[in-house]
Hints:
With about 850 residues, the protein is of the alpha/beta class. The chain contains 35 helices and 33 strands.
Amino acid sequence: TKMVYYFGKTKTEGKGVGKDLLGGKGLNLAEMTSISLPVPPGITITTQVCADYYKSGQKLPKGLMDEVNDGIATLEKELKKKFGDNKNPLLVSVRSGAAVSMPGMMNTILNLGLNDESVVGLANATNNERFAYDAYRRLIDMFGDVVMEVDRDHFEHAFTAIKKKYNATLDNEVPAAGLIELCNEYKAIYQKYTGESFPQDPMKQLELAVEAVFKSWNTTRAVRYREVEGIRGLLGTAVNVQSMVYGNMGQDSGTGVAFTRNPSTGENKFYGEFLIDAQGEDVVAGIRTPQPVAEMSKWNRAVYKQLLEIKDTLEAHYKDVQDIEFTIEKGELFMLQTRTGKRTGAAAVKISCDMVKEGLIDEQTALLRIPANDLTQLLLPSFTTESKSHANVLTRGLPASPGAAVGVLAFTAEEAVERTHNGEKVILCRKETSPEDIDGMHSAVGILTSTGGMTSHAAVVARGWGRCCVAGAGEIEIDEKARKIKVGGKTFKHTDTISIDGSTGEVMAGTVETSEPKLSGDFAKVMKWADQYRTLGVRTNADAPADSQRARDFGAEGIGLCRTEHMFFEEDRIISMREMILAETEEDRRAALAKLLPFQREDFVGIFTAMKNLPVTVRLLDPPLHEFLPHDVKAQKEIAEILGISAAKVKSRVAQLHESNPMLGHRGCRLSVTYPEILEMQVTAIVEAAIECKKKRINAMPEIMIPLVGTAAELELLRGKAEETIEKVIAESGYNGQLDILIGTMIEIPRAALTANEVAEHAQFFSFGTNDLTQMTFGYSRDDVNTFLPDYTRLEILPADPFQTLDATGVGQLVEMGVSKGRKTRKDLKCGICGEHGGDPASIDFCHNVGLDYVSCSPFRVPIARLAAAQAAI
Ligand code: ADP
Ligand code: MG
Ligand code: MG
């Protein structure tokens, strides 16, 4: 098979071969060549060769260097130069380039082919000795670094000494004599640290360089980069060997990098930098200060004009923003790279809208161009780049929930609530949070924890609210009693302000300035397009009126999951809740529940009002009861006193409720089976609230959802009880208007999915609770998964965290089966999803494909889900 592809005037073989084999850089060099842009000719060695290199125990495949040789021969003919020649030598660069861009994986080697003889040839042919030795010193430096791992500092020191000796401040002020001297020193350094002399045979240089590129594919930093970015399944890197053009030939030469549009705002304005008399990475390395690309017209008008034309050609060809690299050799422009430009969420939205206006792309393409997840950036306040640049970063935790928060430190939930109430902005700082901290978390502007991962309680809850959260910042020592933290040798008291960045995990001292998000006209336009193309409904998970309203503003078409347990954690309610749990007789339990009823009703009135004319799926109580009881002795004593019972009693009840596997224990519908009065109270509250709304001409549309059903018989029993209660409440209220309350269930136990045809006999809707369904299908405890899951994704045992992206292969089968079996029994069965997956674009794609009616996600993810649903439908 062909290992080497040529690009140039003679022929361009790589066009259409594909990124997989040629790498992004190689393919685009071939493509730019084929549309007649000025690209220095060269060859691309395929990624397959890299794969073969590793398969054969790190040996270059037989015949490779012959093919490379042929390529070089064609280059020599095309350019009328000769590799290693002492008159007019051909020089090349050796560049890595995988199918996915991996910046910083390997340094490029420039000016390869120079040796003690050809450097003289180059000086003569160009009549520029200074330039020739500048090229040579760069080669020895880069070759030494990349191929032989000589520490660049050694070269750096020698260069500094020479600059001093010749009174030069800048690198391009060193005269030819100085550079000649420097090359000799570089060769000596090379000899000293490698034990060999710098190779004089150009073909040998090339072979070693090609091998070094292949080796760079598996360096720790490259492997780590792929891990972090989730890049998998690539063959390896391609190698591009490209004839050199020189930006370091004097004041009429230079090199630069640019974006065809502004990548951070999206503004349609050429954006970039260039540097006169420079080569390669000089621009980004900060050797000298580059100039903005707009200044180029003053330096060379014709070249600038040509560059602008090429910019338009590239956008017209790729129909997307390009990130380009170019070089000017004695007034002649050459293109060295182009790729799709990375951009912020805001830029993605603006660019998509602009390009539709310009007729470059259609609406569908525009929608597909915007990474749905990146919309998060448009929905949250963020730190300004300016203020971030001089922030004092104390430590870094996990970027658990994006956003920017600035506040004083609070150490308990109660403190957070109280101080917020008094007008302070607080950041709740805890080792880890628990459900009891909910109130404090809600009132805080940000949450900071020293333990716990991306799926810890704090992280999940914070993401749900779009609240900024940094989790697992292990370097922070929290002293809750003394109300202070210690980090990086510094101490911060409860009166001190810190800033946390939930998008990066940074914890910073003092106030870092933020800017509020602007929902621009373009953003609204994108949402409108998305609604036109999507077929999936988008609901929200919300259990408070304010969240419901926010979700509605973001376009939610109802509530897919209203959890009722959070409603019981507020001060007065938790007491009644505990009283109910501690009660010994049904009678006492009912008495305690009766105290909770008005609270619940009030909550529902608020939510139904915020969601008028839209369905609200209310899930009945789900967690095991022990979660509501205090576990420390002091709190147990307190509740005992309030309720007038003995502390021993409380303690024994807590012990009694203890379960070895609470997630598989007495929870969900199982609670209602043993304590039907809980279900009765909740259903009563729902129906009374709906009637109260209706009387105020507010169209409440409640749906009752029974969680954790595993058998049809469970649902049959509980549905019966719910229906009885509904009828009873309606009768007692004397209401005689219309009130259709659907009753359905969550499908979150594998058995329910397997027997969905039976379950559907008693359910008017299914909502797939994919958090529990994933937990139970894999047998992974969702709360403890961080002990091993990182290893599983690292070793590629799993392609992704199944709690973040729905496992389509396994868990997905259960969803698919649930839908089809359920609809066989009940044709109009409404099916939705309400797990965390409902806000994940890849999972939304799956939901679309299996024919769900809607997804439900946290309010802040609603716009993301709308876009992802459209993308799934296009
Ligand atoms: P990276 O992937 O790190 O950007 P590149 O392979 O693009 O590395 O090379 C970095 C820079 O080296 C390019 O932007 C360009 O300025 C310079 N360069 C590479 N090949 C050549 C060449 N054939 N002629 C002139 N400069 C080159
Ligand atoms: Mg590059
Ligand atoms: Mg569940």
